[in-house]
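Example 5.3 — 4-hydroxy-tetrahydrodipicolinate synthase
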Amino acid sequence: MEGIVPSLNTPFAQDGSVDHASLRRLVDHTVAAGCGGMLGLAVAGEYAMLGFEEKTAMIETIAATNSDRIPFIVSVTAPDLAETLDLSSVARSAGARGVCVQVPAGFARHEALVFLNDVAARGPGLLMVQDLDWAGPGRTLEDIVFLHENIEAFSWLKIETSQAGVKYTAVLNATNGALNVCGGWAVTQLMDALARGVQAFIPTGMERIYVAIFRRFKSGDVAGARALFERVLPVLNFSNQHIDISIRFFKELRKAEGLFESGKCRQPGAVFDPVQESEAAIAMGRALVLAREIDMDVAGLSS
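Solution (predicted structure tokens):
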């Protein structure tokens, strides 16, 4: 798994139910965009607003539509630890490639070890640990190295902390690159992450643009990758001011792209006031124009 591994939004119909037709379109779009994998039922997917049966049905829809064309990772974090284990089993039965989970807050090193071993035993094989701390440093480097050395399936760490760039390097160095590192919410630090050797990045939306940035960087065209990324920054300046704004914005972008029938959200704070509606429209226009330009470039190369 390498490159762009987007976190999938959960589409809802106007009546509030999960829209599986839109979900299937999103999966096909993600594969066609050249992504290196996909992550379902994470924060961007409003996982906290979904029931167990809804999550199970979504896992099955995504896995069946994807048909193992690219790695599908299921986020199984839940307030109830029994649900986390049950979702891990569902992911395995559906044919997902792995699971992503956040260690419950307050768990000491050995509690985390037992918990993650239980998740790994129930899951499909690949274990990604989410090191999420919106304003702090997250788990200590010593804990991460210990867990990596004692859990065979623990092969990916998703870092979403303050000073994420420094932590990417510290983890890669401490494990001699054996623990794969990916970033998520710190997408504004994408160029920094690529320069540090991060193997994958997990943004939301704008897949074709991010794939183009990643491919330019990997081909040695660092200046071209940076120039393209700098055109994305005005969009991120709006979308990433808060997770609720991000969820709402990318739902509306999916609708504008023709992937979702509705931009409906369950996240309570995912609403725009009139000024945000105007700013979102400008940012969305930028994203759509940039995606069309990339599509034309790809078409030109193909011909």
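Remark. The longest strand covers residues 126-132.
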